[in-house]
TrEMBL record:
<protein>
    <recommendedName>
        <fullName>Nitroreductase family protein</fullName>
    </recommendedName>
</protein>
<dbReference type="InterPro" id="IPR050627">
    <property type="entry name" value="Nitroreductase/BluB"/>
</dbReference>
<dbReference type="GO" id="GO:0016491">
    <property type="term" value="F:oxidoreductase activity"/>
</dbReference>
<dbReference type="InterPro" id="IPR000415">
    <property type="entry name" value="Nitroreductase-like"/>
</dbReference>
<feature type="region of interest" description="Disordered">
    <location>
        <begin position="306"/>
        <end position="341"/>
    </location>
</feature>
């Protein structure tokens, strides 16, 4: 490793741009970054949280954790060692992490592969064929999650049917909630917004959605229009869980989720996160009972894609999520107390 130096602004901008390719609930992108020439700081942006879908803000924090890990992966792929300090300011819980640049290094092959995976990963809401070489991949994914204090458990096939029933229960409860429905259609419906949300090209057709085990009910889309009628969903399903529901554990779960998704992408596996069965207490309790876990956070479907990737989902312009030359966002521009919940 060569002597420690600081990156130029363009390098930081590129790292933040790649960090913002992280997945988030309905592609809401609830993060904000600042760079003061020494630290790259990550904040949760309360303007982009979804209160009627994610009342406890867990999924928002998980998304920020994924973005934090994406930033470190992007930095490593660019030859920078970045060190994360989580919740560095006890008086500002919206300040989730600070990243410092510790020095340059020659990227390893693994760094470059994971960095490239940031650009090619996407959420695939179609049915999958079974993942190949699953036993070895499962061991790797379990280890990656453990590095962030997060547990990975694989559902056996007999539990898929039970999870599907739990998913149906979640859909029935949500169908009767007008605020949830307004929020869903605002982020993933005909009122889809520029630079965020889930476009029609990334949402499954009604016929394709029916084949997916435990999928969230979205407004009808265009993905999977040419899917073979005989296609069955043979995805593996894993659940990531924590030892508790503290915001620190939830953020670490997000970092683990990023590692899992990127590793699967490197191995040419398609992925789809499932959070609708962990968002509300009553449905989450059903998942807990089914799997014997106290704090399930997010589930992920993993398998081989059955259709070509859709167009890349959009991201917010960098200037709307990145402040240059400030220690922290100013009043009213997205700082949040959500992380204290």
């Amino acid at each position: 490793m060569v002597a420690t130096t600081r990156p130029d602004v363009q390098t930081v901008r590129e790292i933040v741009a790649r960090a913002c390719r992280a997945p988030s609930l309905h592609n809401s992108q609830p993060w904000r970054w600042t760079w003061n020439g020494e630290f790259l700081r990550l904040y949760v942006d309360d303007r982009r949280l979804l209160p009627y879908t994610d009342a406890f803000h867990r999924q928002g924090i998980i998304a920020c954790g994924a973005a934090l890990d994406h930033a470190q992966v992007a930095g490593a792929a660019s030859g920078w060692e970045m060190q994360a300090s989580v919740f560095p300011d006890p008086l500002d819980r919206a300040h989730l992490a600070s990243l410092s640049f510790r020095g340059r290094h020659a990227p390893l092959e693994a760094d470059e592969l994971l960095g490239a995976a940031i650009e090619t990963r996407y959420t695939d809401r179609l049915p999958f064929t079974a993942p190949f070489q699953w036993i070895g991949l499962e061991v790797v994914l379990r280890t990656l999650c453990r590095n962030f204090g997060t547990h990975l458990q694989v559902l056996d096939r007999s539990q898929h049917r039970d999870l599907d029933r739990i998913s149906d229960t979640a859909a029935a409860l949500r169908r009767a909630d007008p605020r949830y429905q307004d929020e869903l259609h605002g982020w993933a419906g005909d009122t889809w917004r520029p630079y965020a949300g889930i476009p029609v090209s990334a949402r499954a057709t009604a016929q394709a959605a029916e084949k997916v085990v435990a999928g969230r009910m979205f407004p009808v889309g265009a993905a999977g229009a040419h899917l073979q009628p005989s296609t069955e969903d043979r995805a593996a399903i894993v659940v990531l869980s924590s030892d508790n529901d503290t915001v620190e554990s939830v953020l670490e779960c997000g970092r683990a989720l990023s590692q899992l998704l990127l590793e699967c992408t490197v191995e040419a596996m398609a992925t789809c996160t499932l959070t609708h069965v962990t968002e509300t207490p009553s449905v989450r309790a059903m998942v807990s009972d089914l799997l014997g876990l106290d704090y399930p956070q997010v589930l992920v479907r993993i398998g081989q894609a059955t259709a070509a990737p859709p167009p890349r989902t959009p991201r917010l312009p960098l200037e709307s999520v990145f402040d240059l030359g400030h220690d922290s966002p100013g009043p009213g521009d997205g700082r949040s107390s959500a992380a204290a919940t």
